[in-house]
Design brief:
399 residues; alpha+beta; four-stranded antiparallel beta sheet; 11 helices; 15% strand; binds flavin-adenine dinucleotide
Length: 399
């Protein structure tokens, strides 16, 4: 039976995340953004304490034992107030921890996933390089086997939580062949010798979180830190994006809601030609389009969450949700600025921040051009879901 209602547990979670962000983040998000100051040192420990960082992992693995819809709910509520906090869920929980959950050996799960699910360690994801983003099969970071270790050398660029995370999943080329066949995935710790990071300054948005470069100078990584087989890195990276894009889509719904809330408030406050601007039909059109974006995006995210909970592959459906929701979010923030007139162009109102933050989401985790290509090639039958040795575990309620 199709059931789109939220369970009592989901509603409680939603309400508690909403209360948390209203109390802790809403009052400071705008100011931190203006000052380009990271919210992470202040807020990540609280997110950890509240169990958000491991929400979708079993309690036996240090998580909260909830499902993938719960992950989406947290993302929506966080991004409604500040996109950079949702980025933590995308990078730490989805791209890194879900990927360990999917591909990790029992030892890797014990050593890395459990402390990450508990929020004792924070993690990132290093795929993009200065010379390649959309085409990760062109990556140049190298991993050379030396006894029971690999020596990693190269640079990763545009990495979220670059100065914050303790551990990173890093993708590197083994052997000489070009293309995706010779890529492997490694768990790299910040404290390993030869590892360093540099922040990127003056970003358009996401100013309350760090993004930067990872530098790997002969970093010695033990063989037990290789995730999957030597030639499985590309598949691992793509499966990670199935988790990450889901959280980006879910977060984008939060931007749409924030934009709508701000616009609705302004519609009743601002008057022109002697009446509230909300009474003008062209303003109502903006509101209607924003709500349509919200409803469509939410359904796409619900569908992807349902597939994930069942353990059914969802690359296309998640890609669709990411593409549509991030476009609708950008459009909603843009319309909210328009509704605010000149005031929308000023930092006195939050809508310009929503737009600057939403701008990143149509680029990161696969640009929306790449999402369109993916849809086209699936629908025409040129692309089929690749067979994976390990799938992301479905949600299994714990007794
Ligand atoms: C704020 C932020 C955070 C990020 N965080 C991370 C992170 O934590 N980890 C990580 O690994 N990466 C991260 N990224 C990188 C992100 O995933 C890449 O920026 C993205 O994949 C695009 O790569 P690129 O920027 O190199 O663009 P390019 O690949 O150089 O693309 C440039 C343009 O060409 C288009 N294009 C490329 N190929 C095609 C094609 N075949 N057909 C049509 N158009 C095409 C693209 O859509 C784009 O418009 C982050 C990026 C941002 C902005």
């Amino acid at each position: 039976m199709l059931d789109l209602s939220l369970s009592e547990e989901h509603i409680m979670l939603r309400d508690s995340v909403r209360a948390f962000v209203e109390k802790e983040i809403s009052p400071i998000a705008g100011e931190f953004d203006r000052q380009h100051k990271s919210l992470y040192p202040k807020i990540i420990p609280k997110m950890a304490e509240l169990g958000y960082l491991g929400v979708c992992f079993p309690e036996s693995l240090g998580g909260a034992g909830l499902d993938y819809l719960a992950l989406a709910i947290i993302c929506e509520e966080l991004e409604r107030v500040d996109t950079a906090l949702r980025v933590v869920m995308s990078v730490h929980t989805a791209l890194n921890s879900c990927t360990l959950y999917q591909w990790g050996t029992p030892d890797q799960i014990e050593k890395y996933l459990i402390p990450q699910a508990q929020g004792k360690k924070i993690s990132g994801f290093g795929l993009t390089e200065p010379g390649c983003g959309s085409d990760p099969a062109a990556l140049q970071t190298r991993a050379v086997r030396e006894g029971d270790d690999y020596i990693l050398t190269g640079n990763k660029m545009w990495i979220s939580l670059s100065d914050t995370a303790d551990n990173f999943l890093v993708f590197a080329r083994i052997g000489k062949e070009k293309g995706h066949q010779s890529i492997a995935a490694f768990i790299v710790e910040r404290k390993m010798e030869g590892f360093s990071s540099n922040p990127i300054h003056d970003k358009l948005g996401l100013r309350t979180g760090d993004t930067g470069e990872l530098i790997l100078q002969n970093v010695r990584v033990p063989i037990e830190n290789r995730l999957g087989e030597e030639n499985e890195g590309f598949k691992i990276a793509m499966s990670a994006l199935d988790s990450g894009r889901f959280t980006v889509a879910a977060g984008a719904i939060g931007t749409i809601r924030a934009s709508l809330e701000a616009a609705i408030k302004y519609c009743s406050e601002r008057k022109a030609f002697g009446k509230q601007i909300g009474k003008f039909e062209l303003i109502q059109e903006h509101i209607a389009e924003m709500q349509a974006g919200y409803d469509i995006s939410q359904l796409l995210v619900f569908k992807a969450a349902w597939l994930k909970n069942q353990g059914i592959r969802n690359t296309r459906e998640t890609g669709m949700a990411k593409w549509q929701a991030t476009n609708f979010a950008l459009d909603a923030a843009n319309r909210a600025i328009q509704i605010h007139g000149a005031y929308g162009y000023s930092a006195d109102f939050p809508v310009e921040r929503y737009w600057r933050n939403a701008r990143a989401n149509t680029i990161l985790e696969g640009t929306n051009e790449i999402q369109k290509l993916l849809q086209g090639s699936y629908i025409l039958g040129y692309r089929k879901p690749s067979v994976l040795r390990r799938e992301l575990p479905p949600y299994t309620p714990e007794t």
